[in-house]
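Kindly go through one protein, given below as sequence and tokens. The question is how this chain folds according to its tokens.

***
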Amino acid sequence: MSEDEKSVLVDELLELMKNSKLNKNQKISIMQIVDEQERATENQRERFCLYYGLNVNDRKNMGFKQIAELYGCSYNAIRNSISSMRRKIINYSSNEEFLKIKEIVDDCKEGMENIEK
């Protein structure tokens, strides 16, 4: 899979996450991928999960400003952390992790199509 294809796939996933379209098991799978990013800092992982609502307790997504207040830092620091985590997922995830991501994106799209019918 090319870097461009990975980027598009991750962006599709992030859009689904932002719109709260993932179920509990899908969130767990994505949290595992985030946790396995060895090049990411703990703050990057946590901020990414808060922004995209990646938890099993159905916590709502938090905005940059809310997360910045929680961490006592700037809006830009949060934005940079989340953007950095996105790049790390694209650049350092294994093929197996990308297959999981693709499966989740496909399942969500299929579910949305079924709802529209």
